[in-house]
Amino acid sequence: MSCAQPLGAPEVSIEAVLAAQRARKKAARKAEVRRLVRESGPMPLQAPERAEPLVHVVQPDPIIRGELMYVLQSFGFKVRALTFDAPFPSDPPPSEEVPDVVIIDVAVRSVDGEDGIEICRRWTEAFEAREQKAPAWLLTARRVRPKDRVRAILAGGAELLIGELSRGVVASALDRNGIALPRDPRVTG
User: Fold this and answer.
1) Domain spans in the chain, listed from the N-terminal domain onward
2) Mean pLDDT per segment of 10 residues, for the chain of length 189 residues?
3) How far is residue 129 CA from its own chain's centroid?
4) CA nearest neighbour of 47 among 18, 93, 78
5) Longest C-alpha distance within the chain, in Å?
6) C-alpha to C-alpha distance for 78 and 55, rounded to whole angstroms
7) Which is nearest to 103 in space by CA: 151, 146, 136, 62?
8) 54-176 is classed in which CATH architecture?
């Protein structure tokens, strides 16, 4: 007979106690981060001459493009959708303002018949040749082949987002790539 457990009390493992302690510590850290964000306000990401970071959205599906634009604008980004009246240019125009982020679908085709991954590579090389900072490239796809994952990395894509592009997925991808949200819609005040 063990005297460690009172009669009728549920048995609790050490792992459960440790998991509960970790969960309490994690909740306390999250609360502290939220408090610091509220107190400090948004962190500046962009150069001082531009009030809002610029994001180019290159998405052939108008519904997905509209949803992405809405999410990005709610985060405080200046968003420019590149339209598809004509095939997408393989190289950026010389006078093009360099965006902070480009979100491009892999299925996009350029005038030369290149896909979004190849456009990412060509545009990055063009910005670097002009000695301009290349934007962070977030490539999107509904589904992708394994070789396209490798191509996206080699082309300079910061991230390959597969599937649905929810608010959380977009925010997490931006955060993982060092792009701060100019405004966090979750924080009120």
Assistant:
1) 11-40, 54-176
2) 56 83 85 68 45 83 86 90 66 70 83 80 83 82 82 82 86 87 70
3) 26
4) 78
5) 83
6) 6
7) 136
8) 3-Layer(aba) Sandwich (3.40)
